[in-house]
Amino acid sequence: QVQLVESGGGLVQAGGSLRLSCAASGRTISNYALGWFRHTPMKGREFVAAITWSHGTTLYADSMKGRFTISRDNAKNTVYLQMNSLKPEDTAVYYCKTGGSWGQGTQVTVSS
Predict the structure, then answer these.
(1) DSSP 85-108
(2) Of 25, 80, 92, 94, whose CA is between 20 and 30 Å from 33?
(3) Alpha helices (H) in the chain, listed in sequence order
(4) Quick one: pLDDT at residue 12?
(5) pLDDT average, residue stretch 78-91
């Protein structure tokens, strides 16, 4: 079992930036990819971005391209999501997932 802990959420004005972190521990995770998802009551769960631990190959949802950047630090078993040019519609609870494990989520609120 992999344990995931997200951090870095908060309140930011539109146009601002936040960097989320997802720290992983437990079972070896090098064979997996880690994804960021977000959830809102209106849209439900939405894919944001993903990265492979081994090669750092990335994938983004179309609406996040150019604004969000996913990266990893293998030495720290941590994946980051740099979010720039934030919009009110980015307001959501952001979760990371790898293998079958989910983190507890971190709230991001973007004010207009």
Answers:
(1) S--GGG-EEEEEEETTEE---EEE
(2) 92
(3) none
(4) 98
(5) 96
Beta bridge partners of 98: 34, 101
Residue 51: per-residue pLDDT: 96
Tokens 């991001």 belong to 108
Tell the residue number behind the tokens 């959501």, with chain if given.
92
Tally of residues, the chain: 112
Could you tell me if 50 and 36 are in contact, meaning their C-beta atoms sit under 8 angstroms apart? yes
Element (H, E) at 2: strand 2-7
> pLDDT of 23-43, one tens digit each?
998 876 677 899 999 999 999
Q: How far apart are CA 12 and CA 51, in angstroms?
A: 25
How many of the other CB atoms lie within 10 Å of CB of 103?
Answer: 23
Distance in angstroms (rounded) separating the CA atoms of residues 37 and 109: 15
Residue 48's pLDDT band (boundaries 50, 70, 90)? Answer: very high
Q: Closest by alpha carbon to 39, among 98, 105, 93? A: 93
